Amino acid sequence: MSIKEPDQSVWDRFWARKQDLSKVYPASPAIRKTIHKYFPNVQGLKILEVGPGTGRDSAELARQGADVYVLDFSAESLKTVENLRIRERLEGNLHCVRGDAFHSPFPDNTFDLIFHQGLAEHFVNPNPLIQENFRIIKEGGYILCDVPQTFHIYTVIKHVLIAMGKWFAGWETQFSIKGLRSLIKLAGFHITYEYGDWMRPNLFYRILREACFKINVELPKYPLHGTLYQKAKDAFLDAFDRVPLARYTQLSIGILAQKPKKK
Q1: Which residue blocks in the chain are alpha helix, DSSP H?
Q2: Could you tell me if 182 and 14 are in contact, meaning their C-beta atoms sit under 8 angstroms apart?
Q3: Exposed, middle or buried, 48 (CB in 10 Å: 0-12/13-18/19+)?
Q4: Are 115 and 49 in contact (CB under 8 A)?
Q5: DSSP secondary structure, 113-152, as one string
Q6: Which residues pair with 235 in a beta bridge?
Q7: Alpha carbon of residue 124 to chain centroid
Q8: Between 42 and which of 21, 33, 66, 198 could a Cys-Cys bridge form, CB atoms 3.0 to 4.6 Å apart?
Q9: Which stretches of 187-226 are DSSP H helices?
Q10: pLDDT per residue over 27-77, tens digit each?
């Protein structure tokens, strides 16, 4: 089967169906937790999110005083972020830029932090993407890259749908934690921190919820929130997350890495 990366039209169709943010799950909370762990005060930082999707993480960082840019080639994605920017009155701190992430319209050494989630896996060769990130990050600045993890049922389901021609993006790959480390190191970054996320609520519930939308039935976004079962499950997962083996069971994994300063 020939590999065909998703083009702009794929993402325009996808995000055109996602205008109601109340129905769309946010990105992994591990992304923002990691950012605030290493940047407890984002006031005045220059931050770029590549492929922002709904832009909610960028909007929150802008609310906290960061100077945030979002870069995407999908007009529909940027329209979603633009609507959020206006609604939340973030015009001074949140900036929408349409462009190519492989040839971004920014000078060298521009950003303190670049982050993206669900982006690198859509390219047959993501190395130029990470190298371009390296170019526009300041010396001593950081990249945060979050991708699907290989050893998960999500990978099996995805590749069955790809083989059937039913995957929403047409094609997508995945990474082991070892493979993600190699990708980040190859561009010249030094790894600072690694994390993973199992997705809460889980994948199967989210699939069911999406299917129900097609018959005009809306299931609760977080069905067991606040219950003893959910609290116990979260406590177990949080404890297991500290074990390196967890990176081979989680749906998504991420790495925070630093661009070294010149000596």
Answers
A1: 8-16, 29-38, 56-63, 75-87, 127-136, 153-163, 177-186, 203-213, 228-240
A2: no
A3: buried
A4: yes
A5: EEEEES-GGG-S--HHHHHHHHHHEEEEEEEEEEEEBSSS
A6: none
A7: 18
A8: 66
A9: 203-213
A10: 889 999 999 999 999 999 999 999 998 899 999 999 999 999 999 999 989
CA distance 29 to 243: 19
Residues 124-155: tens digit of each pLDDT: 999 999 999 999 999 999 999 999 999 999 99
Cβ neighbours of residue 106 under 8 Å, at least 6 residues apart? 48, 69, 136
With tokens 């170019």, the residue in question is: 135
Crossing angle for the helix pair 153-163 and 203-213, to the nearest 10 degrees: 40
Strands 94-98 and 67-72 turn out to be: parallel
Question: What's the CA gap between 187 and 128, in Å, rounded?
Answer: 8
How would you classify the pairing of strands 190-197 and 252-258?
Answer: antiparallel
Residue type, 249: T
Cα Rg, the chain, nearest whole Å: 18
Q: Are strands 94-98 and 137-148 parallel, antiparallel or unpaired?
A: unpaired
